[in-house]
Each structure stands twice: as C-alpha cells, then as structure tokens.
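Reviewers of the previous submission asked for a worked example of the structure-prediction workflow described in the proposal, so we include one complete record here. The input consisted solely of the amino acid sequence. No template or homolog information was supplied to the procedure at any stage.
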Amino acid sequence: MKGKSNYFSSLCKRSFKSSITALLGLAITLPLMTSNAIASETPNLDKINERGTIRVGMSTFVPWAMRNKQGELVGFEIDVAKRLAEDSGWKVEFVPTAWDGIIPALLAQKFDVIIGGLSITEERSKSVLFSEPYSHSGVQVAANTDLAAGFSEFSDFNSRRIKIAARRGAHTVQVARDTFPKAKILQFDDDAQAFQEVLNGNAHAVIASSPKPEHEAVKNSDKLFIPFDERLAKGNEAFAVRLGEEDKKAFFDAWIQARTEDGWLSERYEYWFSTLDWQDQIASGQ
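From that input alone, the workflow returned the following structure tokens.
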C-alpha cells in the first residue's frame, strides 16, 4: 500500500492529459517536465498539493454519507474520499452541503470536488466537469402498504390523485416526473423527510436511489413495500469538478480506473448497498 500511495502522490506533480490511462502502482514512464511546464499543465492539482488537503463537498444521505453514533461521517462516499486522499498523500476535509446547493457551492470554490453520489446528466454537464463513473446505483420506489395496496404497475402511480415524495434537487425528482408525469411530486430537503411522509400516510410512495427504498421496506415491512421488480433507472455517479479543470478530471479518472480494476470500489459498494452490517454504527434518525 505504501508503494502505491507514494507512486500515486508523485503523479500529482506530473502532466496529465485527458487520454491518460495510467494505472496506480504500475511502473510507467512519463516525460520529464520543467517546474514551469508542470505548473502550467496541472494548476488545479498544484493547489491541492500545496495545501496538502483535498476539500470534498458532500451531502448526508444513507448509505452514501451518514453520521455514526460518535458523530463521525461514515458511508460509501466517505470511504471513497478517504481512500482517494490516502492514495494521493493528502488529508481530506469534508464540507457538508445542502443537496440543492452543492453545484453552486462547487462553482463558488467552497471545495475542490463533489464526491456525493452525483449522477451524470446532460443538464449538470453544462455546469460541471464529470469524471468517469465510479458507481452505478439505481432508482426505486417504496410505496405505502395501505394507500398503494395492489399497485404493481407504473400506470398505477401515474395519476393526478397520486402523491410521490422525493428529495429536493436530486436526480430522482426528474426520474419521478419522467416516469409518472401525471402524479404530484412532493419535494423535501432530505430522504428521511420524504420517507417519513409516506410512513405517515401523507403520500402514496417515495422515490429514491437504491438501496434506501429496499432498506426502508425491510425495516418497515408493515408500512412499506417495493411495487416493482425492476429499478426505474440506472445511475452513473461520478466526481464533479469545475469546467476547465481537466488536470483534476484526468487524475481522478486514473484513480477510479485503478480502484475499479483492483475491485476495491466494488467491494465497498457491496458492503454499503447490499448489506445492513453497518446499521448498528449509525445514529438514530437517519
């Protein structure tokens, strides 16, 4: 691990082009460059290296990022950001940010990168530069057992009398509108509020990124059920940086490729999304 970390840290100081395919830990040869050339080629990485800390914008939602019983941040995104920083020789500073303001905060230079389950969309790509995907989540519906009893088709929820809850600013809002154009979409500041609205019987269903719907249906089997066998959409989550920060994108792309090929990203995703082994760590109310 030490060898890989040192090598990856050294890459921060070299030139990265958009076509980079270098893998971490492999012995490769990059052209030697003068310090002036390096500065001109990797100005955004230089800032992080000089600071020694990468500032990560994120928003808390299960199981991407949560607070444990000691008040510390844990979750899939937290693991990803910490491993990126470790491999790169950096410290990491998390900047919790409201989801609907996370892109404006990035553009305002509140942090260096968004690592927060942000799905790649055409509209978002007009404002930010995405890395290669590092995870592929889905979108699913959890429905109220009484209000939606017998519902099993998309058409059952596509009605003006149907209320569907979702997290404000999330990709799931657009998925809900596209899938159920006639339904009324109720938006809340976080997933917990959206799910509570359905548990309270004030909405027929809630739409959210997996595995939140599946987990909540297991925990509240008397009040929630999953009406569909297939997910509504498959997401491609990526890091997001500011437009023009090609050096950072290339660096992150190389890291994502390496951690994908060695299986680390898959292993961490499986732990957080396919099990509830971590549940006892988490503070109540999340």
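The chain has two domains: 2-136+235-281, 138-234. We consider this example representative of the routine output the project will generate in years two and three.
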